[in-house]
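**User:** My hope is that you can spare some time for a protein that puzzles me. I have put the entry right below:
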Amino acid sequence: MAECPKCGAKVKKDNLRRHISGVHGPGAQAPKAARSAPSRPASTVAFPWQIMVVMAVVAAVVIGGYWYMAQQSGPSPDGNGTGTVAVIETNYGTIKITLDTGRAPRTAGNFISLANAGKYNGNSFHRVAANFVIQGGAVAGAANVAWENTGLRNVAYSVAMARSGDANDAGSKDTATSQFFINLQDNPNLDAYTYPYVVFGHVTEGRSVVDTIGAIPSNPAGDGQPTSPVSIIRVTIV
């Protein structure tokens, strides 16, 4: 064996010249360096999960706040919403009714028109039905008002329109004119008809006056004309 004077490699003697010529000669190529696989650059933009979560929470809070405010300011199913107020002055005291013009626009609008025209002034509550309703406001020649599905219920101190005929009959549903009644208690039976009696407001002040009128004996007893007259002095829309 012989040692290559160029690189120190051990080769057979008879191959030394060939080794020097092939490896270290003028035409020899230098060994190629091994190429490393190109690395994929790391992403420099991370998906903003935390920001998205925060934005979702903020959106939920804002939407929830709007919903809560709408529920607080809008009318309730029992007619306790905000709206125009009718002040009914009687010889027993004053009753204030908040009219639900949002859910009962036709019925409340009819009541407002009659009141503004002075049609209820000098009128009366002509019916007392014990533990049921007090009814008044009969105006001669008043026009009919079309029935509307307000979704409001006949609960204690709610105000609704009286009408004639069968409450399950489509031919009778539009017979309300001017007469209204105030419920002395919850009367779910009035909501159970095909065409429920239309609630359009709720007593917000003067419930004691309503109770006093509702306790007046009637003729016939239990449901009829009050034995002591109940006058509607005037109705004012404020």
